[in-house]
Structure formats: C-alpha cells, structure tokens
Amino acid sequence: EDKVVQSPLSLVVHEGDTVTLNCSYEVTNFRSLLWYKQEKKAPTFLFMLTSSGIEKKSGRLSSILDKKELFSILNITATQTGDSAIYLCAVGSGGSNYKLTFGKGTLLTVNP
Amino acid sequence: DAGVIQSPRHEVTEMGQEVTLRCKPISGHNSLFWYRQTMMRGLELLIYFNNNVPIDDSGMPEDRFSAKMPNASFSTLKIQPSEPRDSAVYFCASSFQGANQPQHFGDGTRLSIL
After folding, report:
1. Nearest C-alpha of chain B: how many angstroms from A96?
2. Which among A35, B17, B102, B105 is least buried, having the fewest CB atoms inside 10 angstroms?
3. Mean pLDDT for all residues in chain B
C-alpha cells in the first residue's frame, strides 16, 4: 500500500522565521510529488516535482525532491501570517491509472 | 476561469437519509476524483474516473457509497443510507488525464450526519 508521511504534524513560528516541512514516501511506480496549501477551503496547487535535485521556486517558497532517499522538503522563508495553513504532500503513482496519495499534512501557524 | 464547482457547500441531515453531492469539473479535464477529508484520516481518495469511466473505486468505504459520471461535465457521489461516521468534508478534483498533471480541487461539501 502506498504511504506518504509528513512531519512535523504541526508547527508554530513567528513572522520572519524560516520553516522546513518534510515529506517521505513509499509508493510503487512513482511518477511525481506534489505540494498543496490548504487554508479554509480547497487545497491549492503549489509545486509538482518529478526529478531529483532540481529546486522549484515560487517567491518565498521552494521545494526539492530526493528520489533516492524518497523524500521532499518544502521551505518557506521570511514567513508571513498569510502562510498559516495546512500544507499537504501528495505522491502520484501508476501509469494510465495515475492517482495521488496524500499525507496527513503539516499545520503551520505563523504568529505576528 | 471557472474552477471545480461543488454543491451543496454544506449539508446537515439525519442518519438514514440519502445524501447526494454534486461536482462539475473544469472544462476540458477528463479525470475526476472524489476525496473525503477527516481529522483522523486526512484526505482519502474514494473513487476516480477517466473519460467518465470509473477506474478505481477501492477507496469507497462500503456499499452505501456510490458514484456516477453520466457525462464529462457532471458527477455525483451518493450515500444511502447515511450514518454519523460519514460526517466529513468531501472534495471533488479534476485534471487532465495522465501522469504529472496536477489536480485542481473544488471548495468541498461539509457533510454533517446527525
């Protein structure tokens, strides 16, 4: 059975801090790893990673994948209160029947 | 651009009643996914469709749950009869078929079974 484990489960920081969120996985037929941000409603797509060692960056957020060690990290620098959310890691597996397996998420709280 | 549209946004009903959740995927997307989210279990895939055909329903908890996709722009998830343990947020997501295509989520239906 495919498994995705995120850590920590929750994290409280002050504005301006840098945070690192972790995601490890065990899946058969790995195709991609995705990060989502979930505030009050729908998860919104952040990044998709398919290759090891290539950093994806969007503003203060960045992510990298290690396919040998089977993990990914999501970094957020200079955190703001608007970064408070649940961050979900998902791993895509399968061929024609591609589907995502989600971790339980990391709840990030950024205090002013 | 219209995203994935789900209805209703909230549903409160008594146990034993039939519940129908609705989803309109993003136009042009040919894969559709139904998820359930709870505090205990996180986001779980219930069933997904490619080109309106159910591909994998192994996540459907039991026979009380059923899903249909009669055409490319509409899907339903039905629970009959409903039970209190079905209370959760149900999300629908859609994507282009195939690997390495991100899924886009609707705002979900918050279901409470009393």
Report:
1. 6
2. B17
3. 93
Q: Is the pLDDT of residue A108 over 80?
A: yes
Once rounded to an integer, what is the mean pLDDT over residues A79-95?
93
Residues contacting residue B40 through CB under 8 Å, at least 6 positions apart: none
CA B66/CA B48 separation, integer angstroms = 12
pLDDT digit string, tens, across residues B51-81: 999 998 989 988 999 999 999 999 999 999 9
CB contact, 8 Å: A95 with chain B? yes
* CB proximity list for B23: less than 8 A, separation 6 or greater: B4, B5, B6, B32, B34, B74, B75, B76, B77, B92, B106
Say yes or no for a CB contact (<8 Å) between B105 and A43: yes
